[in-house]
Amino acid sequence: MLCAGKKSYFAVVVCVITVTSMLTVSYLRLQRLSHQPKVIQEGRRCRGKTANSTITALKGNKTFIISPYFDDRESKVTRLIGIVHHEDVKQLYCWFCCQPNGKIYVSKAEIDVHSDRFGFPYGAADIVCLEPENCDPSHVSIHQSPHGNIDQLPRFEIKNRKAETFSVDFTVCISAMFGNYNNVLQFIQSMEMYKILGVQKVVIYKNNCSHLMEKVLNFYIEEGTVEIIPWPINSHLKVSSKWHFMQDGTHIGYYGQITALNDCIYRNMERSKFVVLNDADEIILPLKHPDWKTMMNSLQEQNPGTSVFLFENHIFPETVSTRMFNISSWNTVPGVNILQHVYREPDRKDVINPRKMIVDPRKVIQTSVHSVLRAYGKSANVPMDVALIYHCRKALQRDLPRESLIRDTTLWRYNSSLIMNVNKVLSQTILQAQK
After folding, report:
1. What is 168-430's CATH number?
2. Can you tell me where the transmembrane regions are (predicted)?
3. Which among 1, 117, 211, 392 is least surrounded, fewest beta carbons within 10 Å?
4. Distance CA 188, CA 124 (A)
């Protein structure tokens, strides 16, 4: 009887598991069917004005669209990078217009608010819609209903529709430049270090900066190094300059930095072999290699199947300096001279140093600031003897005496090229304006 009881119990368990699996499969199939594009109108011209702002507010539903991107890595979808209220935005629909047949398809969106929201009511979101199978739409409109008139809604051009050959090896994404940014000397030094290390493109999400900084940005734009993405997020939301929600009525943290980083990855997915996510006062310094290209070749060889490489951040306090490289012509330029700051703080006990990343953008689905949230492939922490992030900023360990800091002159390996290149930029921008 005991044996029969066990068999009977086992049969019930198997039956329950089987039924649950069938119900789950049926539910998922119904969910997918509900997201399939449906034809709602035929024989129409595509109407609506094409959006040309970086951030576009959708009327009345707490949703902001940055840009849509074609993504066929799993299925044929349009992925819109956006910002939404994490509780109040429940339903959105993509309206695709297919030419030349004039069919309008509506596709229910999956709204995926990124997990790294840090308590703020608004967060970065992927708004993902299945595309019509027999059409490659060039534009999409977003509506909160599958019915109605979208003629007055903005249309967004779907980027990355055509695969391209890489135009650059490394693109640096900087987000976001705000607070009337005026650290001119350090910015120029960082830019020139990036170029020495092998960067061809720097994308900056600019909220605002000083008039002097504007001159420097224009120089780099004309040179072809910098691409500016206007980032007027404070025209739409109450922004915080802090990363964590402080119950102070703000809507989104750190000027929407996470949204900008995600947009930058997708924006450069088809044109850059690697994307580097760091701030303007951070430089990934290789210790075993002369530049990033040889470093990344080595790291990829040692870490097959890895798409995300994380580098440890180390603070070089701007309050502790050396007399070396006190260049008189630089003293009139606002900002920090990084060559004079070669003392770094030691590691703190029980505190993990934050990291920044070099990623293969085609393998990233969602990113945060210090790690990726979703990606194809593995992540690898790069050992400190291979490379570290030189981060010259205010001290974190303010009470440490100078003798407790670690002298690290890795940056000086590049000093002659760096000084020459910085002088060249200054002579054509700041110093020229001062004459």
Report:
1. 3.90.550
2. 9-28
3. 1
4. 30
